[in-house]
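Changelog entry: the GYD domain-containing protein record was regenerated in this release. Current contents:
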Amino acid sequence: MPKFLIQAAYTPEGTKGLLEEGASGRRAAVDQVVTGLGGTVEAMYYAFGEDDLVCIVDFPDPVSMAAVSLHVKASGALRTRATPLLTLDEIDEAAHRKVSFRPPGT
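Regenerated structure tokens:
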């Protein structure tokens, strides 16, 4: 199952909601969204700095991740980035695939 790193920063409106609902309330909301699309939440942490929230989630397919991303961003409560995470075996497989590439100017 594809795994994603989600990094998010609350907008002022989202931060107000977090203050009202608390972190455990937000965790329940994240779990509901992810499991509703057949995924699982591996980890969820709050952070300081540029990102307020970091999650690692598994989804059945990238389209599920894209659907969540679109709906979350449309809410205006969070700015998010989703990064696909690859296993060591997947990178080994990629490293051994034949790729026909010509650098510019050669």
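The chain has a mean pLDDT of 95.
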